[in-house]
Amino acid sequence: MLDVDNIRIDGGTQARSELNEAVVAQYAEAIAAGEKLPPVVTFFDGTDHWLADGFHRLFAHKKLEIIEIDAEIHRGTRRDAVLYSVGANRKHGLPPSNADKRKAVELLLNDAEWSKWSQQKIASTCGVSAGFVSKLVGELASIHGEEIKPKVRTVERAGKTYEQNTAKIGKSAPVEAAPAPKQPKKEAEEVQYFGPSPDELDEAMKAAEADTTALEMLMAADDKLAAAVAEIKRLKMQLAAVESARDGYMNRSNELISRINSLKKKIAKLEAVSV
After folding, report:
1. Which of 16, 81, 186, 228 could form a disulfide with 43 if both were Cys (CB 3.0 to 4.6 A apart)?
2. Domain residue limits, the chain
3. Once rounded to an integer, what is the mean pLDDT over residues 95-118?
4. DSSP track, 162-207
5. pTM, entire model
6. Helices within 89-196 (DSSP H only)
7. Which CATH code fits 98-170?
8. Under CATH, which number does the domain 1-96 receive?
């Protein structure tokens, strides 16, 4: 049993995109009815207990002002809790939404160490398909550039782990052109010219320049459209980050309110004893 106020939820270990208040209410109703829910999962680093799985259950206990909760405690760091959390939602409880899956994958792709894993390993860890990871990598690369695709990945083969340079994957080696066969020398012959006149050539050059200008304008318009699409994607990413930060602050606010209520309850008990 752990005191709910001693479990930390502010370390980015929540792999879901947001807390579902309806599920919190449902769990609180089940607990009040006497149903025993699975224990939450925490990682203890010697100082703090980091919550890795069970955010809805924890807030259901706080909603009922229950000060202790069943917990499965592992020895580990905050990063261990994060890594556990990205795959925890697929095992039980509320099925992960596409937004939950996206956030879990992005937690690994945005990490200096985990982003070097193969897409298959990231997919397996997060409980999603390799195609989902590949699509997300492509989207992030179009916004942030190729830096989202690490040049070196950690690959496992036959129980052994090694680093693989991916910079040239999918790129074929340049093919050298075969030397042109030597043509036999011919004696110079007098050739009679039947081509267009200089004026006709001048008109043709002007028409070609006009076509080139029109083509350049069309290409510039395409570039502006592509830049606008990239800017929209970037702004959407910023909006998602702001919403995620907002949700974090709301969770922290709920935690502080619950802690204040718990302290009030303890003070009331102490005052009753002192009387």
Report:
1. 81
2. 1-96, 98-170, 196-275
3. 89
4. EEEE-TTTT-PPPPPPPPPPPPPP---------S--HHHHHHHHHH
5. 0.52
6. 98-109, 119-126, 130-144
7. 1.10.10
8. 3.90.1530.10
